[in-house]
Amino acid sequence: MDCYTANWNPLGDSAFYRKYELYSMDWDLKEELRDCLVAAAPYGGPIALLRNPGRKEKPASARPVLEIYSASGVPLASLLWKSGPMVSLGWSAEEELLCVQEDGVVLVYGLHGDFRRHFSMGNEVLQNRVLDARIFHTEFGSGVAILTGAHRFTLSANVGDLKLRRMPEVPGLQSAPSCWTTVCQDRVAHILLAVGPDLYLLDHAACSAVIPPGLAPGVSSFLQMAVSFTYRHLALFTDTGYIWMGTASLKEKLCEFNCNIRAPPKQMVWCSRPRSKERAVVVAWERRLMVVGDTPEGIQFVLDEDSYLVPELDGVRIFSRSTHEFLHEVPVASEEIFKIASMAPGALLLEAQKEYEKESQKADEYLREIQELGQLPQAVQQCIEAAGHEHWPDMQKSLLRAASFGKCFLDRFPPDSFVRMCQDLRVLNAIRDYHIGIPLTYSQYKQLTIQVLLDRLVLRRLYPLAIQICEYLRLPEVQGVSRILAHWACYKVQQKDVSDEDVARAINQKLGDTPGVSYSDIAARAYGCGRTELAIKLLEYEPRSGEQVPLLLKMKRSKLALSKAIESGDTDLVFTVLLHLKNELNRGDFFMTLRNQPMALSLYRQFCKHQELETLKDLYNQDDNHQELGSFHIRASYAAEERIEGRVAALQMAADAFYKAKNEFAAKATEDQMRLLRLQRRLEDELGGRFLDLSLHDTVTTLILSGQNKRAEQLARDFRIPDKRLWWLKLTALADLEDWEELEKFSKSKKSPIGYLPFVEICMKQHNKYEAKKYASRVGPEQKVKALLLVGDVAQAADVAIEHRNEAEMSLVLSHCTGATDGATADKIQRARAQAQKK
């Protein structure tokens, strides 16, 4: 344990800092880091170098080279820089490289050097050029801050949703500030800059002078400033050699440290972790590194090579030409276990486990000591937690073995934390491998989340490792394996050296029917890469027509989209394609396409019936569908035309169409309707009133009600209305008028073709029994009983029924006999029935 703590350096009495090697860099840099623009992404991210920017001693024809490496120094991309002069590099939260040019244009590249997009920081920046730039991260995304040649600041807090903000002018600023940085307060990005001994804070509305509380006197200039990883703390390096540390709001001072060096540092960054005991700032000069905090003495390291600092959530990464190291505060659990002469429960448990492996009785003594104090659960938890913060697998295993040993003596210790730590460490050790090169710490891993880590593995095209992690952690397929396979397929379609057939087959063999994978998304990526035929082949594997059709339309494969929509049976989808085809094709080609698809043609007709009647007529004409064309003209005559001439003309076209369709009945009926319309118009002109659009029967009835009996009879003869129907119409109309005299004359005009029972029924319906009795006597024998019953003459009805000796009629009369008044009649019928039965 003493040897293990050899690289621990105390900072004051409460905290230790240690520096250990992550990788031995093998990237064969030909130039010093100080001769390059350098950008390293946090959370173990990649490193970008732009070699020899603006080097005067280089030939004019030599272009800078932009190179991207993993954190372990493995080359990821290299490209010749052919754009404008570069001012600054930086990585976004999505690990996209932002390259800020002198003209204010920001070029965005992927991890593998693929160009993504570009945007400009505005005309003012273009005119005044860029002096300096910063890439910063907020909760909204990654931002860019620009200092122009006019000494004005412009920033955008989120490059994904670009909104440029021109910051207020600093009064009297004639030259570039000695140092500046971005500060995020209350969810808003601000600019903090130093001009001589003064500090100014710029927000969107104003420029405010600020004074750090408790700053040592004699400061004439601020040489460097640094904001902590979480934007909560600020450090200021002054020309007096003092480092002021406080809150980023400049309202509270934490401490002040005199480093006795007045030369401006190359870099200054914060080095702290969540719940840190002693917050510290790391300051780097050419060959010296100093860790300072609220202590009289700092920690000093000698730098053998030119180095670069990368602030992290829980420490600082330091890389040079040959090594990549990590400097951080020793976590509490590790400190308590490994500190010299520690009697913490975790330290005793680790010793007990080691003695147990030696088969020494001291193991029992250590274990009893822990148990007597009741600290065994705490000891197990300490070992588990300390294992998470260790970088080397051997030490992780040693601590986890100790935790497992201690768990054996506990009855109810929940295993979740132990199992989860084992899983997390396996994942961390896998991604820390030199060939992967993502040196995440346990705290960074938990902050980043497994989903983001998987995204970063996918971004590096490490699909097998990402899938292994998903399977090991048993993540749901939609969040894990399926999502990664979909990304792999999208990358696969970009390999243009492989044929479409081979790519489609390989993707289908790998993906199959994996849930959560959308072939349409992969096909869309293929189409975006200019591989239309590959996209069509991939769409064949897409089971959802609703996903196939929109992309086929986008690819201008409308006829194929129509076939797919029809196969789906989704009418809404078919209508979508039809409307797209209608706008895309000329009228003739569109109709020909419909003729080859009967279902689509039928649906389009339904659409036209409600929306485009003229198009419907054209469809019927093209198909020589005279029957439907005739029906169309019939509907049009009533729906569109108000003038009688127009309606008659439409009906004439309908009649002609019916003749062509060899539908004689429909043609004759249409001609009759034309005659009726002309007659109704003439009647309206001569008699007044409303006749148009009445049916033939209603027209006759209206004439009778108007007293135009002769005209009604003539109309009946003209349209060959049968006598029976005419008598019914006239009978009903005269009864409605209560013209009983005319009705009686009508009944005597000739023998009634409908008999006289209807007269009785109509009169009784009008509650006129007197008139009804006149006709009851004229009713034929077979309906006599019914007529007499209608007028209420039960006794006479009984006599007729007995005379006819008709059992049904006698039963009918009996059903109408009520009370004492009809008792004699009922007896009479019963006697007649009895006599009939005897015979």
UniProtKB/TrEMBL annotation:
Its main location: membrane. Plays a role in vesicle-mediated protein trafficking to lysosomal compartments including the endocytic membrane transport and autophagic pathways. Believed to act as a core component of the putative HOPS and CORVET endosomal tethering complexes. It is a peripheral membrane protein. It holds the Pfam family Vps16_N. Keywords: Coiled coil, Endosome, Lysosome, Membrane, Protein transport, Transport. It comes from Eschrichtius robustus. The lineage of its organism: Eukaryota, Metazoa, Chordata, Craniata, Vertebrata. GO terms for molecular function: actin binding. GO terms for biological process: endosomal transport; intracellular protein transport; vacuole fusion, non-autophagic. It is found in: Late endosome membrane; Lysosome membrane. InterPro entries: VPS16, Vps16_C, Vps16_C_sf, Vps16_N. Residues 517-835 form the Vps16 C-terminal domain. Residues 349-376 form a coiled coil. It comes from the Eukaryota. Core component of at least two putative endosomal tethering complexes, the homotypic fusion and vacuole protein sorting (HOPS) complex and the class C core vacuole/endosome tethering (CORVET) complex. Their common core is composed of the class C Vps proteins VPS11, VPS16, VPS18 and VPS33A, which in HOPS further associates with VPS39 and VPS41 and in CORVET with VPS8 and TGFBRAP1. Interacts with RAB5C. Interacts with STX17, MON1B. Associates with adapter protein complex 3 (AP-3) and clathrin:AP-3 complexes. Belongs to the VPS16 family. This is Vacuolar protein sorting-associated protein 16 homolog. Residues 4-420 form the Vps16 N-terminal domain. One of its GO terms (cellular component) is lysosomal membrane.
